Amino acid sequence: MSEDIKKFLYVNRKAPYGTIYALESLEVVLIGAAFDQDVSLAFLDDGVFQLTKGQDTKEIGVKNFSPTFRALGDYEVTKLFVERESLDERGLSADDLQDIVWEDEDDDYAEKPSIRIISRAEMADIMADQDVILSF
Amino acid sequence: MSYDVNGTTVEHDEEGYITNLGDWTEDLANVIATAEEVDMNDEHWAVVNFLREYYEEYQIAPAVRVLIKSIKKSMGPEIGNNKYMYELFPYGPAKQACKIAGLPKPTGCV
């Protein structure tokens, strides 16, 4: 079976609202999670805003889907790579992002962080290592 | 299309999922369950309540395997397994239980 597993990277570059890309990407990830592949998510450019905490969409009349990122661990999606340079360029830091964790069943359900902040150079390496890249 | 709950009407779509999630009450759940030919017992309610809590926290209805995994963790493997869940909800635990819980159809269900 292991030889059938491919590495999928979903690249998120757009702000969460204003276009449908961010929500569509998340839905594809949730649906695609049923196929037991090795899934990672990348957040860069304005995509880093998708993970910010304290989002409130009441005034723009759309659903706030940011809590759904915290469900990804249940779907065995446990690698959320965030590009440090994109955060810096927008005046953001790790503290501005939601706490997103996954439960490790093999480690007595210990909660482990899903978000990994990496450099642009490391992001390039991760992209080079994938079988499939889907860009949103 | 609508359900009748003690004289008030609650709108639903062509598949029976309610239109306005805020319309949900336990009485409505019983009405939907009757329409689905599900006789609600404590275990059905446990699943329905779990789904409502999950939706409240994450804003999605979980996929069926996520549901079963979570029920297994909270209520044990005798209840949290595929076979038992399908006995409780013959038309699919996620699909049918979400309908009774007043949630949208789970993401990925066709």
CATH fold assignment of chain B = Arc Repressor Mutant, subunit A
Shape of chain B: globular
- Stretches of chain B where pLDDT is under 50 for at least 5 consecutive residues are none
Broad shape of chain A: globular
Please state the second-level CATH architecture of chain A: 3-Layer(aba) Sandwich
The helix-strand sequence of chain B is: EEHHHHH
Report Rg of chain B. Answer: 13 Å
Largest sheet entry of chain B: 2 strands, antiparallel
* N-to-C span of chain B: 21 Å
- Uncertain segments of chain A: none
CATH superfamily assignment of chain A? DsrEFH-like
- How many beta strands in the DSSP annotation of chain B? 2
Along the chain, the helix and strand elements of chain A come as EHEEHEEEHE
Q: Report the CATH C-level class of chain B.
A: Mainly Alpha
What is the number of independent domains of chain A?
1
Report the sheet-strand fraction of chain A: 15-25%
Can you walk through the features of this model?
- The complex is a heterodimer of chains A (136) and B (110).
- Chain A has 136 residues and is an alpha/beta fold.
- Chain A has helices spanning 21-32, 84-89, 120-128; strands at 7-12, 38-43, 80-83, 101-104, 110-113, 115-118, 132-135.
- Chain A is built from three helices and seven strands; from the N terminus they run βαββαβββαβ.
- In chain A, a hairpin with a 5-residue loop joins β4 (101-104) and β5.
- Chain A is globular and about 45 Å long.
- Chain B has 110 residues and is mainly α.
- Chain B has a single domain (1-102), classed as Arc Repressor Mutant, subunit A.
- In chain B, 49% of the residues lie in helices and 7% in strands.
- The radius of gyration of chain B is 13 Å and the shape is globular.
- The model of chain B has no long low-confidence stretch (mean pLDDT 89).
- Classes of the chains: A alpha/beta (136), B mainly alpha (110).
- At the A-B interface, α1 of A face α2 and α3 of B.
